[in-house]
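Posted in: Protein Modeling Q&A

I'm a second-year student putting together a small comparison for a lab meeting, and my supervisor asked me to include a predicted structure for HicB-like antitoxin of toxin-antitoxin system domain-containing protein. I've never done this before, so apologies if this is the wrong subforum. The sequence is pasted below exactly as I got it from our records. If anyone can share the structure token output, I'd also love a short note on what stands out.
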Amino acid sequence: MSTDIGSNGALEPETTITLTEEGEWWVATDEATGVTSQGKTRTEALENLDEAVAGYNGEGREPTDAELRNLDVDPEQNVSGESLPEEFQ
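Accepted answer (user: helix_wrangler)
Welcome! Here is the predicted structure, written out as tokens:
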């Protein structure tokens, strides 16, 4: 996280991030949440971490139909629900 001033003029909370190089990969970990991500560059690892922490904090979004198709998922068969599928109960 940075110390950029947000849209409401407040500083974002301070966060400790551990960034290490492991072979060909950079690994970034948000110490407050324990969320970890990686990338081929430091910048990519940090950008991926930002996205992962946002998802962890519930700031994610539903995938678009195009994104689902790119993952070979039929959008018509992809339904959200309150309960787990039978296989996971």
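A couple of things worth pointing out for your meeting: Helices lie at 42-56, 65-70. Residues 23 and 40 are 10 Å apart (CA to CA).
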